[in-house]
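stage 2 :: seqdesign
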């Protein structure tokens, strides 16, 4: 059963949308349909945070609670609002009283021209809804996706660091129970669709419905967070004829752990699995924290990152190095392949018509295994990689030290697809008996890498820079492993002493 309408709460009011082009972004909807111009357009590409709004949703683990997430309205399609509460800067005030997130900006002189201010306020609002006493690192993480060209960041950061304890009694807290009831009711509605301008949107609720829809309409375009796809609409003025939203499909939005594996649904946003991956692979958690900014990680997904098949997507090299697999689904039939096997050529993958990515399976680490990740970009936060290097090394202790028993060196930004450096790996692995990781061996592996890759020159880096940095990262990894082992030996000696 389907319903030709999108329903959500706009602040505390229930809204129905019908007959609207599903290519419309939340930002366009707010400014052009609702005449709410508090949410600004700076870049229309997810980079500046001027359009930040907040989505409240039923918590997937505790449905009697709401979670509040900042998102970029400029790269979110309006259909994705179904079943959620959209909170905008206009409605933060409670009567004449400014919200804590606004008042602290006033108190700390955090605004000059004011163009960026609504975005900062909404990022701060989302943070304080989840955490009323954030520390500096948490504030910096929450605000990293917001840019200000005039005030400077000190006063804005201080504003967001002001504890909101005792200041939580806003209009959303007063309507909390009612919001829970409404969102729970919306959750039970038939599959939402939206038609307008000859274009269609549908949000299937389970995997069978999704698979059937893709067989019925094989020319559909899947959308998850939209943080890649929406740019084709806002930047390249593309029109997507048939959008199929995967973010409501129950089987695609879970994370499960077995004794030896972590299985992540393709449509689960980064924010919902970053902690688990950080626990098992600290380097991977740290790297995911550098994918876009909080707003992007709150909606962007693994399925989108892999499905986009960009040579500079950050997750594929890490997943390839880890030997991760992915499950693909086509009309009720599933197949599992290595992530490495997914990419054929620039933007070409093994996905067949009507097939989609269901989940990604990552092995848990075993003794002797190490994953090292290096993201090289011009800025630390919110920047795309020039080179992403992911090194998986397994070493086994011998009488004289350690020997390498398995190695995968995967790179992004070095070829038309994310790819392994097989020649460099062969040098490290040797004749199969296992080499010791030495300075000389690393020098040979660096040389061999030049036969693996002839990277391109583009705005992010020259070919020469890319190759040199990739080679040097192998050496950096070696030095870090050496110093960790030295530290271990010293610590053991200190303990024994
Ligand atoms: C400001 C900004 C910064 C960014 N920074 C980074 C960064 O640092 N590193 C990085 O890697 N990326 C970055 N990105 C790109 C993007 O956020 C990620 O690639 C993200 O993971 C995409 O996920 P999504 O759910 O938004 O994909 P969407 O845009 O929804 O989809 C992307 C593509 O994948 C397809 N797709 C989606 N789901 C599936 C599925 N289940 N099966 C098959 N195909 C599917 C879609 O049809 C589409 O072609 C950035 C984007 C922005 C806007
Ligand atoms: S307008 Fe810049 S992030 Fe949306
Ligand atoms: S106050 Fe002017 S852009 Fe931030």
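stage 2 :: out
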């Amino acid at each position: 059963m389907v319903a030709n309408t999108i329903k959500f709460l706009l602040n505390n009011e229930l809204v129905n949308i019908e007959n609207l082009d599903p290519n419309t972004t939340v930002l366009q909807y707010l400014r052009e349909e609702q005449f709410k111009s508090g949410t600004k357009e700076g870049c229309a590409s997810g980079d500046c945070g001027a359009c930040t709004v907040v989505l409240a949703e039923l918590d997937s683990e505790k449905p009697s609670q709401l979670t509040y997430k900042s998102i970029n309205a400029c790269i979110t399609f309006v259909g994705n609002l179904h079943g959620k509460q959209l909170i905008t800067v206009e409605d933060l005030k409670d009567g004449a009283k400014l919200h804590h997130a606004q008042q602290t900006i006033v108190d700390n002189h955090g605004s000059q021209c004011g163009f960026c201010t609504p975005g900062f306020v909404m990022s701060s609002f989302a943070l304080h809804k989840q955490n009323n006493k954030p520390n500096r690192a948490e504030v910096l993480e929450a605000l990293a996706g917001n840019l200000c060209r005039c005030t400077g960041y000190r006063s804005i950061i201080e504003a967001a660091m002001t504890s909101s304890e005792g200041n939580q009694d806003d209009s959303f807290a007063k309507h909390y129970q009612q919001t829970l009831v409404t969102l729970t009711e919306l959750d039970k509605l038939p599959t939402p669709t939206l038609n307008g301008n000859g274009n269609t949107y549908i949000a299937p609720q389970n995997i069978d419905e999704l698979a059937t829809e893709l067989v019925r309409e094989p020319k559909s375009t899947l959308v998850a967070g939209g943080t890649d796809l929406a740019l084709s609409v806002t930047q390249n003025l593309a029109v997507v004829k048939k959008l199929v939203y995967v973010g409501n499909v129950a089987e695609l939005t879970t994370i499960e752990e077995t004794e030896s594996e972590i299985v992540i649904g393709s449509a689960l946003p980064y924010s919902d699995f970053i902690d688990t991956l950080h626990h098992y692979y600290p380097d991977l958690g740290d790297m995911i924290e550098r994918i876009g900014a909080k707003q992007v990680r709150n909606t962007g997904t693994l399925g989108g990152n892999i499905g986009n098949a960009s040579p500079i997507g950050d997750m594929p090299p890490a997943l390839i190095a880890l030997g991760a697999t992915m499950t693909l689904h086509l009309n009720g039939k599933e197949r599992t392949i290595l992530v490495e096997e997914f990419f054929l050529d620039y933007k070409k993958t093994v996905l067949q018509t009507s097939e989609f990515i269901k989940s990604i399976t990552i092995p848990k680490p075993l003794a002797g295994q190490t994953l090292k990740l290096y993201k090289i970009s011009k800025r630390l936060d919110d920047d795309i990689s020039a080179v992403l290097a992911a090194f998986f090394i397994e070493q086994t202790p011998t009488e004289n030290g350690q020997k390498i028993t398995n190695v995968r060196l995967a790179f992004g930004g070095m070829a038309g697809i994310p790819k392994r450096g097989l020649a460099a790996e062969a040098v490290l692995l040797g004749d199969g008996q296992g080499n010791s990781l030495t300075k000389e061996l690393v020098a040979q592996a660096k040389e061999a890498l030049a036969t693996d890759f002839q990277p391109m020159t583009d705005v992010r880096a020259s070919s020469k820079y890319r190759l040199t940095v990739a080679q040097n990262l192998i050496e950096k990894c070696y030095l870090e492993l050496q110093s960790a082992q030295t530290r271990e030996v010293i610590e053991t000696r200190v303990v024994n002493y």
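stage 3 :: structure notes
- The pocket of FE2/S2 (inorganic) cluster (ligand 2) is lined by residues 41-44, 46-51, 72, 74 (CB under 6 Å).
- The longest helix spans residues 463-496.
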